[in-house]
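Let's sit down with a protein and look at its sequence and fold side by side. Please make up or recall a protein chain and show it to me in full. Label the sequence line and the structure token line clearly, so we can match residues to local backbone shapes. Go ahead whenever you are ready, and we will take it from there.
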Amino acid sequence: MSTAIPSSRNTRKALIGFVTSRSGDKSIKVTIPYKTPHPLYHKVINRKTVVHAHDEKNETKVGDKVEIMETRPMSRLKRWRIISVVERTVGAAAEAISEKDVAETVPTKTTRSGASAPAAGAPAAGAPAASAPAASA
């Protein structure tokens, strides 16, 4: 899970995780998933560690797989920095949509084609169908 990078100073942890948030300029959140067995039942449990990291070049996007390394404190929460982007995310860039865009694409009662008043002979959608008279025996 973690590897030490040899250097003349000291050994620093390096981890691999996924970018889950771009909170500000040169700041990202990295989620590091791992599995651990339950102490009593021995079922494998998925766990995660979320760390704040420094992205000097603003090169990462949400979903990228990145390698991060321990560093000096950059801010109140940031103690990690990006070493490299291991794998880029596949797909289009995330783009915010408005309520108007959603309303245009999602059919509703008022925008559905043929949503005019029901025919006189047909029962309404929520009304129960007329039942036949009960036969007496």
Observations:
- The mean pLDDT is 82.
- Residues 95 and 134 are 60 Å apart (CA to CA).
- Helices lie at 99-105.
- The two ends are 78 Å apart (CA to CA).
